[in-house]
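Troubleshooting log. The previous structure file for this entry was overwritten by mistake, so regenerating from the original sequence record. Sequence copied from the archived sheet and checked twice against the printout by T.R.
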Amino acid sequence: MNVFIACLGTETNTFSPLPTAEAGFREWMLYRGDATKRPENLFSAPLHVWRRAAEAQQATVSESLSAFAQPAGVTVRKVYEGFRDEILIDLKAAMPVDIVLLSLHGAMVADGYDDCEGDLLEKIRTIVGPKAAVGAELDLHCSITEKMLTSADALITFKEYPHTDSKERAQELYNILLAKHQGAAKPVMAVFDTRMINLWRTPVEPMTSFVREMQAQEGRDGILSVSFAHGFPMQDVPDATAKMIVIADGDGASAAAVAEKFGRKIWSLREQTATENLSIDAALDHASAETAKRPVVLADVTDNPGGGAPGDATFILRRIIERGIGNVVSGLYWDPMAVRFCCDAGEGAVFDLRVGGKCGPSSGDPLDLKVTVKRIIRDGMQPALSGAVPIGDAVWLQMEGDRDLVLISTRTQTFHPDAFGQFGIDVAGKAIIVVKSTQHFHAGFAPIAGEILHVQAPGAMRSDFADIPFQKVRGPYWPRVADP
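Regenerated output below.
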């Protein structure tokens, strides 16, 4: 048995001002055939699972490119085409191939390609032919297209947000494709379009129970897999709406019926699952009035680098300063220029520094602050969902009024309290923690938080989904239309 594995992706915010170039892949993940010899991260972890599983069955494993970039704007055309063609060249060299396993995102857009995953899968199918088993594991914030469905035997998304189940879904995909190769199953896929654009947080009811119901369906009545592709609200592509994907063993009608059952269930929960986002002042009012001993975590959801935002917006920090609120830590601010100045000045330096507000109107105005450089970390990392992620050179700044900031030179969202704690900051002792993230911070911060509030500031990401200026989204959708 010959198995081919590869990874290519990014989450494209088509409204982001930041182009995704090769440098974005180099600083996040760019391995050529040896990702499984390196530490795991969220999107390389499936390759580790697949190699171990295949080699346990004495299969020959051909490992190609593993390239993934931090979410930003549209990918440069020659960068996508170059990576795609590298995978295709490796695949041709590995032929004949029985199983193709891909770790993709599902929301990658390049100049000239609204559907990078469909383009890649289509070309792979042409090379391997109809008998080979071809599948992809996707981030649940993906757009499911007809080209993806007709080119693959199985598409499986993460079930959890935060994405804590990358390895489990990788094993699920492997088992289905192996069953096809061995003749033990005939996977067929069906999709139900919910006609919704929204964000669903799976640690919160009723989503927690919905995910458990999906899992309970698997293994019953010939159903092999149930996935909920949430879609990515900041992506203007034709297939942006959320969809249910069901894989059945040879029974397309059964797959379609189950997909519709779960699709109509999640539709019925649309009002209950909508997240309340507070204004900056409403969130600060609530956090300031909180008397619990545990910190209140404010999620700066509109400046989340994990959704393609720059990560240098100053709106919340400005109001904290203007209102004289103290005992606060805030980060991670992407400001390589300010980090450079702090590194040059050195630990213990006290000087005037301009922070944030550098990438355009969605970043707000820069703040001129008197800061003390408390600590510098070179080539830093922070714990994430399936391994550590880079933050580059990073600095802990202290400013008057008992406020701490962490600035980084490699753009990423805030995943874990150790993003602050590694500097020596007592995160649990703070009254307020402001994190630049939408949901992935939840797994790390929930255990120490007295309360978590989501804040709607005027950043690069939007949660007023009815008013996002889409041009390409196909057909009506909720909440723009009450009943699409």
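The radius of gyration is 23 Å. Archived copy saved in two places this time.
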